[in-house]
UniProtKB/TrEMBL annotation:
Keywords: ATP-binding, Cell membrane, Membrane, Nucleotide-binding, Phosphoprotein, Transmembrane, Transmembrane helix, Two-component regulatory system. The modification 4-aspartylphosphate is found at D61. Its main location: membrane. The modification Phosphohistidine is found at H199. Residues 12-129 form the Response regulatory domain. Residues 160-251 form the HPt domain. It is a multi-pass membrane protein. It holds the Pfam family Hpt. It comes from the Bacteria. It is found in: Cell membrane. This is CheY-like chemotaxis protein/HPt (Histidine-containing phosphotransfer) domain-containing protein.
Length: 251
C-alpha cells in the first residue's frame, strides 16, 4: 500500500506486458525501489489479477496478443468502484500524439515510452502513487471482500444450522456448474447464452452476498444485450476470477 507523505512512496503495481524480457526489466526496477509487483502476460490476465488482488497502479503495455492494452483499460473502467479509478499508465514505443489520445480515450491516465527509461519509470510511478496523482486514500484500490456476510446472514438467519448448510452447499454446487459453463463461453459462444448465464449468476450470487460477482455479471449481461460482445468477453475472465474468490470465501 502506498506510504504516507514524507516517506518513500511504495505501492502494489500491476505490470501488463507480454514480452518476458521487458517483464523482468520493469519488475526488477520496481521491486528494487520497494514496490510489490504482479505481472500479467496479456490484458485478460491483467483484468483478472486486478479483480483478485487489487493494485495501486497499473502499467499497461498497449500492444499485446489476445486482449490488448486498450481493451483491458476499457474493461477495467467498466468494472465500477473500486477498480474503475485505479491509475493506468500506458507503455508503448509509439509516442505519436494520436496514440497518446487513443490511450486516454481508452481510459488510461498517462503514457510512458518504450524502451523504458529507469528514471522516467520511477518518476511516473511516484507521481501516480502520490495523493495528488490519484492514489488517494489507503485501501481505495484494493479488491473488496468477495462475500458480504451481512446479506448472507440476513437471508439465512432464521434457518436451522443443518438447513442453512444444505442451502449453501446447493448454492456452491450451482456456482461450480456455472463456472464451468462460463469458462467454456470464454472461448467464444453465443452472446445470448452468455447474457442468460450472466443474468442468472447475478441473481444467484446477489442473494448469497456475492455482490462483486453480481456487479460484474450484470455489466456482462448489459454489454451482451447492447451488442457489445467484445466488452462482454473482456469482462468474462474477471467474472470467473471473482466467482472463484466467492467460492473460496465459503470454505
Amino acid at each position: 500500500m502506498a506510504e504516507g507523505r514524507g516517506q518513500t512512496l511504495t505501492g502494489r503495481i500491476l505490470v501488463a506486458e507480454d514480452n518476458p524480457t521487458n517483464q523482468l526489466i520493469v519488475a526488477s526496477l520496481l521491486r528494487r525501489a520497494g514496490h510489490a509487483v504482479e505481472v500479467a502476460g496479456d490484458g485478460a490476465e491483467a483484468v483478472s489479477l486486478l479483480l483478485g488482488n487489487g493494485a495501486d497502479l497499473v502499467l499497461m503495455d498497449v500492444q499485446m496478443p489476445g486482449m490488448d492494452g486498450f481493451a483491458a483499460a476499457q474493461a477495467i473502467r467498466a468494472l465500477g468502484d473500486p477498480w474503475a479509478h485505479v491509475p493506468i499508465v500506458a507503455l508503448t514505443a509509439d509516442t505519436l500524439p494520436e496514440t497518446r489520445e487513443a490511450c486516454r480515450a481508452a481510459g488510461m491516465d498517462d503514457h510512458l515510452g518504450k524502451p523504458v527509461n529507469p528514471a522516467a519509470l520511477l518518476a511516473v510511478v511516484e507521481r501516480w502513487l502520490s495523493p495528488s496523482g490519484g492514489a488517494e486514500e489507503e485501501g481505495r484500490t484494493g479488491a473488496p471482500p468477495p462475500l458480504d456476510s451481512a446479506i448472507l446472514d440476513q437471508a439465512t438467519a432464521s434457518l436451522p444450522d443443518a438447513e442453512r448448510r444444505m442451502i449453501i452447499d446447493s448454492f456452491l454446487g450451482d456456482l461450480d456448474r456455472r463456472l464451468l459453463r462460463l469458462e467454456a463461453l470464454s472461448e467464444g459462444g453465443d452472446p445470448r447464452r452468455l447474457a442468460a448465464e450472466a443474468h442468472d449468476l447475478a441473481s444467484l450470487a446477489g442473494s448469497f452476498g456475492g455482490t462483486a460477482v453480481m456487479r460484474i455479471a450484470t455489466r456482462i449481461e448489459i454489454a451482451c444485450r447492447g451488442g457489445e460482445d467484445a466488452q462482454a468477453l473482456a469482462l468474462l475472465p474477471g467474472l470467473v476470477a471473482e466467482a472463484k474468490r466467492l467460492r473460496e470465501a465459503f470454505r
